[in-house]
Amino acid sequence: MPYEIDLTDEVADDYQQMPAWAQRSFEMALDDAADDPHLLPTFLPSLPSSRVLEFAGGRGSCMVEIAEEDKRLIVRYLNPPR
Question: Which domain of life, per UniProt (predicted)?
Answer without folding.
Answer: Bacteria
